[in-house]
C-alpha cells in the first residue's frame, strides 16, 4: 500500500488538496464554479480557474486516492481473515498457509491448517439476483466439496440466510457455470448432465462443507463491507 514516509506524505497532501478544492459540500462547490464561469471571456478564464482552486496537483491527488481505493476490498478481505482466525482456530491447530491477497495466489484455498481447509466470503448480501456473487460462492463450495482431503471444510460467510436460499434454490447450474469456462468444463467432465439445479448438486454435498456465519466474530467487518460497497455504488 504505502510503504514509506514519502508516500504517506503524498497521501496526506492528496487528501488536503481534495478537501481544499471540494470544500464542505462538493456539489455546492461545483455549482459555484459553474456559475462563476458564466459569461467569462477567454482572456479572463485563467483568473477564474485560479480562484476555483482547480490545479493539476488536485487531479494527481484524486488519481492517487482512486488507485488506493481500488485496494480497499483486498485490505478488508485480508484483515477480515486475520481478525477471524483467533475465533476459528482450535487449541493446538497449526496453520499451514493463509492466502490474504486477491485470489488465492497459487494456493488452493484462503486457509489450510493441519485440520481444515477454508474459504472466506465477505459479502453484504442484499437480496435480488446477485448472480455474480452466487457464481463465486458456488465455485468456492464446489472446489472444497470436491477436494481430495480428509480435513474439515469450512465456508465462512457474513450471514447464512441468503447463502442457504441460493444453495436450496432452483437456479440452473448452466447459468452458474456459464461465466467460468474452466469450472464448467471440470463439472461437465465429472458429472455430465446429472445435476440441473444448484440444489440438486448441493444436497449431495452439503454434509462435506460446513457453512458458518462469522459476522458476530468481528462486527466491524460487516460495517466495513457495507460501507465499502456503498462507496462503490456512488
Describe the structure.
- It is a single chain.
- Helices cover 56% and strands 10% of the residues.
- It is of the alpha/beta class and 234 residues long.
- It folds into two domains: 5-69, no CATH class; 72-233, no CATH class.
- It has a five-stranded mixed beta sheet with strand order 1-2-3-4-5, covered by helices on one side.
- Strand 3, helix 6 (131-145) and strand 4 (152-157) form a beta-alpha-beta unit.
- The chain is elongated.
- The two termini are 23 Å apart.
Spatial ordering of strands, largest sheet: 1-2-3-4-5
Enumerate the spans where pLDDT stays under 50 for 5 or more consecutive residues: none
- The average pLDDT value, as a whole number, equals 89
Number of strands: 5
The proportion of residues forming helix, as a percent range, comes to: 55-70%
One letter per element, helices H and strands E, the order comes to HHHHHEEEHEHHHHEH
Give the class from helix and strand content and strand pairing: alpha/beta
Enumerate how many helices there are, as a single number. Answer: 11
Shape, principal axes of CA atoms: elongated
Number of domains: 2
Sheet with most strands: 5 strands, mixed
Estimated radius of gyration: 24 Å
The first-to-last residue Cα distance is 23 Å
Amino acid at each position: 500500500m504505502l510503504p514509506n514516509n514519502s508516500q504517506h506524505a503524498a497521501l496526506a497532501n492528496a487528501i488536503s488538496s481534495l478537501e481544499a478544492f471540494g470544500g464542505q459540500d462538493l456539489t455546492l462547490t461545483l455549482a459555484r464554479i459553474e456559475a462563476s464561469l458564466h459569461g467569462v471571456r477567454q482572456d479572463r478564464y485563467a483568473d477564474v480557474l485560479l480562484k476555483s482552486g482547480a490545479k493539476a496537483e488536485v487531479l494527481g491527488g484524486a488519481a492517487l486516492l482512486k488507485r488506493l481505493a481500488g485496494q480497499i476490498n483486498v485490505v478488508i478481505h485480508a484483515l477480515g481473515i486475520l481478525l477471524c482466525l483467533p475465533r476459528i482456530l482450535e487449541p493446538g491447530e497449526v496453520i499451514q498457509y493463509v492466502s490474504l491477497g486477491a485470489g488465492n495466489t497459487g494456493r488452493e484455498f484462503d486457509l489450510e491448517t493441519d485440520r481444515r481447509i477454508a474459504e472466506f466470503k465477505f459479502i453484504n448480501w442484499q437480496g435480488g439476483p446477485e448472480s455474480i456473487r452466487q457464481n463465486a460462492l458456488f465455485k468456492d463450495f464446489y472446489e472444497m466439496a470436491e477436494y481430495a482431503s480428509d480435513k474439515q471444510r469450512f465456508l465462512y460467510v457474513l450471514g447464512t440466510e441468503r447463502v442457504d436460499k441460493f444453495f436450496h434454490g432452483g437456479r440452473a447450474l448452466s447459468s452458474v457455470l456459464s461465466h467460468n469456462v474452466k469450472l464448467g468444463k471440470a463439472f461437465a467432465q465429472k458429472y455430465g448432465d446429472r445435476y440441473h439445479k444448484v440444489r440438486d448438486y448441493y444436497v449431495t454435498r452439503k454434509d462435506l462443507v460446513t457453512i458458518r456465519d462469522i459476522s458476530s466474530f468481528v462486527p466491524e467487518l460487516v460495517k466495513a463491507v457495507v460501507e465499502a460497497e456503498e462507496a462503490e455504488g456512488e
